[in-house]
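Lab notebook: predicted structure, single chain.

Context: the supervisor wants predicted structures on file for every construct in the current expression panel, including those that have not yet been purified. This is the next one on the list. No modifications to the sequence; it matches the entry in the shared construct table.
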Amino acid sequence: MKQSVLKKLIVIVGPTASGKSDLAVRLAQKFNGEVVSADSRQVYRGMDIGSGKITRLEQRGVKHHLLDVADPKRSFSVARYQKMAQIAINQIRQNGKIPIICGGTGFYIKSVAEMTSIPTVPPDPILRKKLEKNNSARLYKMLEIKDKDSAQRIGHYNTRRLIRALEIVLKTKKPVPKTASVPLPYPVLTIGLSVDREKLSRLIAKRLNKRLRRGMIAEVKKLRASGLSWKRLENFGLEYRYAALFLQKKITLSEMKSKIQIESQRYAKRQLTWFRKDHSVKWIKHPSEANKLAASYLRAK
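Prediction complete. Output recorded below exactly as produced.
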């Protein structure tokens, strides 16, 4: 393969349940690629069904990187993801293949595709433990008082990012520095999957039923038995949060399903808001459109 082709990077983005993983596999098969996952929950071992981690069968022989690389009992930072993703991309290129980043965690993708600089404040386990005792609404208010801009950038629901921001603010006594980005020295093709609201709602409902049939509740029980606290499980968001609340008998099964559906739709909206800020994203309505975009991109010098 030509050296110019190896200096290429394809990124697949889009809202949850839109079909990103399947598209990434199709492109990898057609254009000799390997996939780098960009999902903040799929990095954890044992979090398979609730996170929608692609199965071996669904991978269809395409090698995937950055799945099952972290212990769910320990925090996994964006800085660590960035470093591991860069190593994976280099390995893929050394193997003569095209790296394809796929996922819905916008900050993970931005950290690699735009070489974002990450604050170097080291984790403080004791401080994090104290902060984890608060729910996301309380964490948001705490951060808003000390660093309103960061609070608004992160939003009310991303517990882990709120905790990390508070950690930086409390340790440095300064607002979280705005991340600086450096363009990569080669072009990047970012393809966004666009799905209308009604269809996405149906896809989310269908996916939830599938996860429940596959044993999502049993998976959360197993994670709890392995030593994860209820609070830690709730901090993983969406499926894990509401399954944990259901197992604690704080909500009914019907309430759990309704909460996951509603919050997944809200999450999808926040994802789209994030990705649409990047005007370089090529939005498509059907996966077949991605083939033409990728072929043209890989042919270009």
